[in-house]
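Intended use. Records like the one below are meant for learning the mapping from a protein sequence to its folded structure. Do not use them to infer anything beyond what is encoded.
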Amino acid sequence: MDEFFCVYCSSLFVQGLLLLVSYIKVGMVSFSSVDLLYDDVLSIVFQNLSLQDRIIAACARKSWLRVAENTTNCNDSITFEANGIQKMHQATQSPFFKQVTNVEFLFEGDMQDAFTQNIWLPAIAESMESTTHIQHLNLNFLDVYSMNEEGERDQEGLALALTQGFRNNHSIKSIRSNGNHLSEKNVEAVALLIKQNLLLESLEISICRINPKGIKDIAKSINMCHSLTRLKMESNKMDNQGVIFLCQEIVNHPTLTSLQLGHNEIGTDGIKFLADTLFRHNKVLTTIDLSDNLICEDNIGILTEPLRYIESLNVSFNRIGPRGITIMSDILKNKPSKTVTSLYLSGTDMGPEGTKSIVDFALHTKSIKSLHVGGNQIGSTGVIEIAKLIQTNQQNFKELDIHSNELLPQDVIVLSSALNNNKHLSTFNISSTDIKEYHCIEALSKAFKSNPSLTTLNLSFNKIGSTGVQILIDHIRQHPSIARLDLSWCDIGESSAKILIDYIKDTSTLTDLYLTCNPIESNYINSLVDPLECNKSISKLTIRLCEIDERRQALL
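Structure written out for the chain above:
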């Protein structure tokens, strides 16, 4: 079976990746991706390579090229790393490059030379100038180290790369340009790129320090793009004036359904304008992310009252407090039942009182699909309220996130009892909740086993240890639907390696397994990799800070 298989290695100690290719035959192994982040790697060697009409990059230290074909999406993609300029020129001249629709530029390891010589961004412009068929473009953090001759940050390099390198492309569907300083010239370049690609569906320009005028210019170009469905403009310090400019331009946008404006210092004036324009008049926008802004008890009502069409609301990491959450809950109770089905309220200081209010709202409307209340110090009283919601077994309620709330043993038992009566919850995040007692793990594991709908389980950052993992696996081994299991930072030792090996061998549903930062010896890690040869379901295995021997590297 031919599958896309990407090995991503980001250790500063990497001495070289000998072969990186686009199309890999792995026989019986049906991986779609494997993430192996570990130290002291000398090389990765792929066996049974299909080399016909493919680009092979023999790469030395600090210079490598990855070419990959994503068969799942039927799109070819190419990734260039800094200092691989010669390889980039070679690749773009290859007949194979005509098939490439996804282009990504990655910067790992020592990249200072290429940037200080001010050659990387012009090289991108020159190499990409003849392209006409790119659909997905990743330009994240391109100008971080781009310097001019005086050693100052180059404000025009990105603009050159965009205006010259992609001026002949008119079919780009997604652009990611996060982490680039969008000065006036760079804003003009981004705006022009948007105008040239009216089929654009997704745009990410976060952490770009765009001033209000830049926000307005980009918003005007977005308003011309009637295919755009997702806009991410987080961490730009756009403040109230910036969000007002944005809303003025996109209030009647016909296709925009998702808007992410987290960490932008938006206060009461900006919240009021956004609510009065987008929330009150736009019938298309359904998802809004306003996390980590200046939303508080005093303005949460202003934000909530006009809600009519928003289904997913994220106000996490705003200091709303218990009374603010109660104000929001009371307003939402009087909305149509389909309004706001996903609520993200992590880190809002809601406490037990706010938890009760939001659960009362969920029980009243019976429409909540996803609830996130992590990091809120909900206490035992809040746990009892959450248990009420779980126990009602609402068919719509699919996802619950209570991470980073310290749970006492009795709290875990209360949750477990409620979970025993729930058959519809599919995603449960209980990470970093201080679960470690074996009888608690036993109770939870039995509850997981009883829910046939559970597909995603996150227990990371709980010191359940090897014994806890054995208890868990014994109960979920034959679970009919668990696909993603996160056991990172769980203090899993070598004594539980055998049960994990057997689980990997036997499972037919698991697709993603995370074992990051567990004290498992390298020889046991090697044993964990071996079962993948005969397991056809696992598509992603994440093992970080571990060592794998050369034979297993060859297998992967």
